[in-house]
Amino acid sequence: MERSGGSMALALNSTLWPFVMKLVLVLLAAAALLGSAAAGPAAYGICQTGCNALAVACYGAAGVVMGVGSVPTCNVALGLCMAACVAAGAAPTP
Predict the structure, then answer these.
(1) Which residues contact 7 (CB under 8 A, 6 or more apart)?
(2) Where are the domains of the chain?
(3) Which residues contact 20 (CB under 8 A, 6 or more apart)?
(4) The pTM is what?
(5) Residue 36 confidence (pLDDT)
(6) So which residues are the signal peptide here (predicted)?
(7) How confident is the model at residue 20 (pLDDT cuts 50, 70, 90)?
């Protein structure tokens, strides 16, 4: 039995994919810059806050309220962004 709205979810994901990939690229570049700063845990927290703000924007672009629905493309982008924040957290703290 096919779930209703299955084709809409696929279309939504293909529509959001270019946006999400650009978002991930920008966040990875930002994480690389943060990795060279000596901020440590503070940079990690700031990076994660940025990731969450962009995830909320991604959900909004999909027409879904964060925490109410699920947009797999946004979830993948959030996971990649948070993983990139590890570089910021590993930076030495002065």
Answers:
(1) none
(2) 18-89
(3) 58, 73, 74, 76, 77
(4) 0.56
(5) 54
(6) 1-39
(7) confident
